[in-house]
């Protein structure tokens, strides 16, 4: 639940207003499918005990469409040759109202819900007795679980021009909904529109951004409204006016899309949907989440200040962070233990809980890694190549930060520390979105780390994205975010790749193989296989599939190895050949990452068969051969197309810290600029620096190019 919407848990009575653009289609006919979905939502909420009042528009638009048809049917040939005619708005309202209410009655009856019809005008509300009786009647209906349906009675309204006159107690169905919310003491008003909410400009403008929380003091003068409703009287201007009036009278309001089939339910669940209007919104400005673009822009600006610092000053920031982590270890542990306990209570898988826990000594280990990173060679501004283009014209190719990174990761809070330290060392701005299961751990780690960043750089260098609903907005910011690195499930990575134009670096599955060749030393093979599986089963570099040369299945080695794995508590599944020979359950798929004390075993004919198996079923992460045959080893190392390939070493060595990178932002199985453990170098790009003494091109006249490589 979004923190600013926690009050939704106390909502019992709500007013729902549905606009003409939702009720009708573009041709003026009723949008029966949308109305059916709306009625199903209201039925569900009604059965959950919510008291619901519906305010509906659409009668005028529907009546206009029907009267046009009737006019056409009754027209003479002369009339058809001059089709321009105006229909009286009050007549349209009278005809459309009965049809609209008949449809609501039919839909609700099918759902076993009773509804009632109430046509009102603003003059009715001038009568105190009417208002009192209206309130009593509606309360009686709500107690009987009836859904009252209100509409302004345009057919008998005394308003001079029903589509233009804004005088009176209310002036359209939006303001009627706001008035009813106050009269009936509603807990919430939901205004359904044909867009997702209030935007900073016309929704059709790609630069317009959805405003999740309306703050009158901030947004009143900033917003540019688009056109009025295509069919009704209101449009977004009318909705905002009604929302502001209701909100500042104490009734929270949400403007959201009426096209979605579950928008009202999600609003009541506290999801960050649509635009919220609340009388206390101005008090949340210091606590509210910064908008996606603002957060990304702030990270970029801070990163530029970081890059401009002297190398020693950047190094000191890392050392200060390491000290701060150790100084706050007890506080971090308390928050992490709370996350672990909550995950266990929620029934999360053991593998996730294992990744979530910061085990004893982990903070010390992380601090040590950060200090190693701080002592590494300065990565920014290194001259990689130096060329004399012409006399007195020197070109340098230098290392440079990428800019702003967006890292989406699941479960592991220690990843936040590694990623943040790498971003600082490489001079990049950073946006982090961790899993909800590690919310408390991530929050305290972020607070400790950013508190160690100097004020002249700013703690916005590293932004912590609080809500999952922010991710789609961030993925649209290809002009301010330079690289996305997802760390998590295959589903997460696939979703992100499909949702953004920003380059994506990362891996989805960690299906790592160990192939034991026929010439392997038995004791070495056992040590490597056991370590690769049981050292840390939840890690992405743990062995998930054991491939064994067929000759080893006949000499007793395979049986011994299987017994040792089972003795350590590893559950074994077999491919077709292994399951039959070893009498173990057959694996449902070779392409499976267990992340636990389980693995797949299969028998292969030779090293080439092992390579073919890995290419067909692997994930291009880390794969290992255990053999004393040099030729077989080289065939494997050169033939397996994975980010990391090992000979006679556990797959668990595929790690940034173990590779001497200090830390890693993740392990990439992509084939763009970085593969395997991604450390500082993977977060850098290059740029060109040209130093001259007044040279101009001028059609290359008088320029003698030397293109001579110079010593660095």
TrEMBL record:
Residues 12-257 form the Aspartate/glutamate/uridylate kinase domain. SUPFAM superfamilies: ALDH-like, Carbamate kinase-like. The keyword Transmembrane helix does not apply. PROSITE patterns: GLUTAMATE_5_KINASE (PS00902), PROA (PS01223). In the C-terminal section; belongs to the gamma-glutamyl phosphate reductase family. PANTHER family: DELTA-1-PYRROLINE-5-CARBOXYLATE SYNTHASE, GLUTAMATE SEMIALDEHYDE DEHYDROGENASE. P5CS plays a key role in proline biosynthesis, leading to osmoregulation in plants. This is Delta-1-pyrroline-5-carboxylate synthase. It comes from Hibiscus sabdariffa. The lineage of its organism: Eukaryota, Viridiplantae, Streptophyta, Embryophyta, Tracheophyta.
């Amino acid at each position: 639940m979004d923190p600013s919407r926690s009050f939704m848990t106390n909502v019992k009575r709500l007013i729902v207003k549905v606009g003409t653009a939702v009720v009708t289609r573009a041709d003026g006919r009723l949008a029966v499918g949308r109305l059916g979905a709306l009625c199903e939502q209201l039925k569900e909420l009604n059965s959950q005990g919510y008291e619901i009042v519906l305010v509906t528009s659409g009668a005028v638009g529907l009546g206009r469409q029907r009267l046009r048809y009737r006019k056409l049917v009754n027209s003479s040939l002369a009339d058809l040759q001059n089709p321009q005619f105006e229909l009286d708005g009050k007549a349209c309202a009278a005809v459309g109202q009965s049809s609209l209410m008949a449809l609501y009655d039919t839909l609700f009856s099918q759902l076993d819900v009773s509804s009632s019809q109430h046509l009102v005008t603003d003059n009715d509300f001038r009568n105190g007795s009417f208002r009192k009786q209206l309130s009593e009647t509606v309360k009686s209906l709500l107690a009987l679980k009836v859904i009252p349906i209100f509409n302004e009675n345009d057919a008998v309204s005394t308003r001079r021009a029903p589509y233009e006159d804004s005088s009176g107690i209310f002036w359209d169905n939006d303001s009627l909904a706001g008035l009813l919310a106050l009269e009936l003491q509603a807990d919430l008003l939901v205004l359904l529109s044909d867009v997702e909410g209030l935007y900073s400009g016309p929704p059709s403008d790609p630069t317009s951004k959805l405003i999740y929380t309306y703050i009158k003091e901030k947004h009143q003068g900033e917003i540019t409204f688009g056109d009025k409703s295509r069919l009704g009287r209101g449009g977004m201007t009318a909705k905002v006016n009604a929302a502001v009036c209701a909100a500042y009278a104490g009734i929270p309001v949400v403007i959201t899309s009426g096209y979605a089939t579950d928008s009202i339910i999600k609003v009541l669940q506290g999801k960050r949907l649509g635009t919220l209007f609340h009388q206390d919104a101005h008090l949340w400005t210091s606590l509210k989440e910064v908008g996606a673009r603002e957060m990304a822009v702030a990270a970029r600006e801070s990163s530029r200040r970081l890059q401009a610092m002297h190398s020693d000053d950047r190094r000191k920031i890392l050392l200060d962070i390491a000290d701060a982590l150790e100084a706050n270890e007890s506080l971090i542990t308390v928050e992490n233990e709370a996350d672990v306990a909550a995950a266990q209570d929620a029934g999360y898988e053991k593998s996730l809980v294992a990744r979530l826990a910061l085990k004893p000594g982990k903070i010390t280990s992380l601090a040590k890694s950060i200090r190693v990173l701080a002592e590494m060679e300065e990565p920014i501004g290194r001259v990689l190549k130096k060329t004399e283009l012409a006399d007195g014209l020197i070109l340098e190719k230098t290392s440079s930060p990428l800019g702003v990174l967006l890292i989406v990761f699941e479960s592991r809070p220690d990843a936040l520390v590694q990623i943040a330290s790498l971003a600082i060392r490489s001079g990049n701005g950073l946006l982090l979105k961790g899993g909800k299961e590690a919310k408390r751990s991530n929050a305290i780690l972020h607070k400790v780390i950013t508190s160690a960043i100097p004020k002249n750089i700013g703690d916005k260098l590293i932004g912590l994205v609080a809500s999952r609903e922010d991710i789609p907005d961030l993925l649209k910011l290809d002009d301010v975010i330079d690289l996305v690195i997802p760390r998590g499930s295959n589903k997460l990575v696939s979703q992100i790749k499909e949702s953004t134009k920003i380059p994506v670096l990362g891996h989805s599955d960690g299906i790592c193989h160990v192939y034991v060749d026929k010439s392997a030393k038995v004791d070495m093979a056992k040590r490597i296989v056991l370590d690769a599986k049981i050292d840390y089963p939840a890690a992405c570099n743990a062995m998930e599939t054991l491939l064994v040369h067929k000759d080893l299945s006949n000499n007793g080695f395979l049986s011994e190895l299987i017994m040792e794995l089972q003795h350590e508590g590893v559950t074994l599944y077999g491919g077709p050949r292994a399951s039959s020979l070893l009498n173990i359950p057959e694996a449902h798929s070779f392409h499976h990452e267990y992340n636990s004390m389980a693995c797949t075993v299969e028998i292969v004919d030779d090293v080439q068969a092992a390579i073919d198996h890995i290419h067909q079923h692997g994930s291009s992460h880390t794969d290992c051969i255990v053999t004393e045959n040099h030729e077989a080893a080289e065939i494997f190392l050169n033939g397996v197309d994975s980010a990391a390939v090992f000979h006679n070493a556990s797959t668990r060595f595929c790690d940034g810290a173990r590779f001497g990178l200090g830390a890693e932002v993740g392990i990439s199985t992509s084939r763009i600029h970085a593969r395997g453990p991604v450390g500082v170098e993977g977060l850098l790009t290059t740029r060109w620096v040209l130093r001259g003494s007044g040279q101009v091109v001028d059609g290359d006249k008088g320029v003698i190019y030397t293109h001579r490589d110079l010593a660095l």
